[in-house]
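Reviewer 2 asked us to include a model.

Predict the structure of this chain.
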Amino acid sequence: MPLIYMIRHGEAAAGWDADTDPGLSEKGRAQSEAVAREIETRTGRKLPLLSSPLRRCRETSEPLAASWVATPAIEPRVAEVPSPIADLAARGAWLRGLMAGTWADALAPENTGNGKVDLAAWRRAVVDALTERSEDTVIFSHFIAINVAAGAATGDDRFISFRPDNCSVTIFETAGTALKLVEQGREADTKVN
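Predicted model (structure tokens):
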């Protein structure tokens, strides 16, 4: 069964409430170099690479892609959770509120902007992006998307079931219809960025 190596992006240069698409900080670039070496050691071979379209994920994928002389495919379904709020400060508060609850809470009309975003469809799409993989794959993604996959694999309805650190590697196995959590990535007291 295929293994999915889901990597949270490196530290971003700005948070969710300051920039809609920040690149990596200097620390984030160093983290991306380290995780490239880690994946090369873990897998021992080149694998398909997928990345969220957001800059922090694409930049995190660059060291591994360069080493493997590969171009990551852009996979919009593993991008950041969509927000119904344009104002950056309000968007940060909205996300922090969601993170404290469950998916049942998150799907309430007041959290979806009364239908402006379909969080249930986004959640299904994240899982589908992983379960559709027919071969071992490395995916560069985000804190919330990794939590979606972990929740689907373990049956946990909390919006946040663990706190993946920047450039941590969470490993899933898929049989094409469901996910199994093989290894939870390292955690940190980290901010979502």
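The CA atoms of residues 164 and 187 lie 5 Å apart. Strands lie at 3-8, 49-51, 73-74, 137-141, 169-174, 179-183. We have added this to the supplementary material.
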